[in-house]
């Protein structure tokens, strides 16, 4: 039976901006079981990082609204006081590899010390024990132990990213949020890191939220895929169904935009750009860009409609399915 680790219900996050409130995550729900990975895909600005930062309770100060439910192993995270969250949840139960994290290393502190630090500060370990654990973690992400003595600039991009993953694993979390963990790396290194993440998922039974704009990359590791568009889930379902039988026109365009060796036709570009979230279009948010738009789309916003076992699409076309 699926053992649910994370349950997100109707999550809403808005930012305060000088030109009005900007709803970046607008009613998103999903659940994640132990050992399962969910891919969160979508174009820039879809709300992917905001969602992950909300889970970690690390949103920037200009958040004007945070509503909904987040439960981790049955515990309500949004209602918890900050002290308890910091001591019991953040990094201990749920860790995150931030977008662009390789650049966040302190350039003048040795890598080993940086990996060991949270174990001393949060875990109350002695420096020696944390150092030994840092060495073990480097082995887990297949990095040679001597790296512990190096400074960040002495590591390649791929090594740095592995070290960042090792850091996130330091407190033995049950859930790992990875925000574009491979986007700054070349394809060979990207493939190595993906293999590594697959191993971690299997060996440690980690639940993962894997954020990427690259739906092909998500398919490599994910059990379920959520396609976000303009702050909302456009399509959500088992990875094989979303990839083989995409139901939302936006998902189809995302898939058609991938270059394929087996096809003579060049990849398609998605026309237009995502809306300004302060003034989203009426009706379906995707309608100004949708090749299948019809009258109702412009007037009424579609809800998520069931299109298969555990598979939903936010599109009126789903109503016509048998
Ligand atoms: N601190 C902030 N203040 C105001 N608006 C913000 C802030 N952070 C993000 N946004 C806006 O919220 C929306 C969602 O941003 P977010 O970074 O979550 O998207 P994303 O899907 O992670 O994009 P990317 O693929 O570029 O990382 C965007 O319109 C963005 O401009
Ligand atoms: S509801 Fe209409 S505009 Fe929106 S995705 Fe479906 S067909 Fe396109
Ligand atoms: Mg982002």
Write up what this structure looks like.
By secondary structure, this protein is α/β, with parallel strands linked by helices. The protein has one domain: P-loop containing nucleotide triphosphate hydrolases (Rossmann fold), CATH 3.40.50.300. It contains 10 helices and 12 strands. Strands 6-7-8-3-9-10-12-11 form an 8-stranded mixed beta sheet, sandwiched between helices. The chain has a 4-stranded antiparallel beta sheet with strand order 2-1-4-5. Helix 3 runs parallel beside helix 5. The protein is globular and about 65 Å long. Bound molecules: adenosine-5'-triphosphate, iron/sulfur cluster and magnesium ion. The site of magnesium ion has 4 residues, from helix 1.
- CATH homology-level superfamily: P-loop containing nucleotide triphosphate hydrolases
Distance between the termini: 30 Å
Which CATH class applies here?
Alpha Beta
The parts where pLDDT drops under 50 for at least 5 residues are none
Number of domains: 1
- What order do the SSEs take from the amino end to the carboxyl end, as H and E? EEEHEEHEHHHEHEHEEHHHEE
Total beta-strand segments = 12
Mean model confidence by pLDDT: 93
- Shape verdict: globular
Q: Decide which structural class fits the backbone.
A: alpha/beta
Number of H- or I-type helical stretches: 10
- Biggest β-sheet: strands ordered side by side in the sheet: 6-7-8-3-9-10-12-11
What's the main sheet like?
A: 8 strands, mixed
């Amino acid at each position: 039976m699926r053992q649910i680790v994370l349950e997100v219900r109707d999550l809403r996050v808005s930012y305060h901006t000088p030109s009005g409130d900007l709803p970046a995550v607008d009613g998103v729900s999903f659940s994640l079981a132990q050992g399962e990975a969910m891919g969160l895909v979508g174009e820039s600005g879809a709300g992917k990082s905001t969602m992950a930062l909300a889970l970690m309770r690390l949103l920037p100060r200009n958040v004007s609204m945070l509503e909904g439910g987040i439960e981790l192993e049955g515990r309500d995270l949004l209602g918890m006081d900050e002290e308890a969250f910091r001591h019991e949840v953040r990094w201990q139960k749920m860790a995150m590899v931030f977008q662009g994290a390789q650049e966040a290393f302190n350039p003048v502190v040795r890598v080993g010390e940086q990996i060991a630090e949270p174990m001393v500060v949060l875990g109350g370990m002695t420096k020696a024990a944390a150092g030994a654990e840092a060495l073990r973690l480097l082995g887990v992400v297949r990095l040679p132990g001597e790296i512990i003595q190096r400074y960040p600039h002495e590591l390649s991009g791929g090594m740095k990213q592995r070290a960042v993953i090792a850091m996130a694993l330091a407190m033995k979390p049950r859930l790992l949020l990875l925000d574009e963990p491979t986007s700054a790396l070349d394809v060979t290194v990207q493939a190595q890191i993906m293999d590594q993440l697959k191993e971690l998922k299997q060996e440690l039974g980690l639940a993962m939220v894997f954020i990427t704009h690259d739906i092909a990359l998500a398919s490599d590791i994910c059990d379920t895929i959520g396609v976000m568009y303009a702050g909302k889930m456009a399509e959500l379902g088992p990875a094989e169904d979303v990839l083989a039988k995409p139901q939302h026109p936006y998902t189809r365009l995302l898939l058609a935009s991938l270059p394929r060796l087996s096809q003579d036709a060049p990849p398609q570009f998605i026309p237009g750009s995502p809306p300004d979230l302060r003034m989203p279009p009426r009706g379906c948010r995707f309608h100004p860009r949708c090749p299948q738009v019809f009258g109702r789309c412009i007037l009424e916003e579609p809800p998520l409609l069931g299109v298969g076992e555990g598979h939903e699409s936010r599109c009126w076309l789903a109503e016509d399915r048998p």
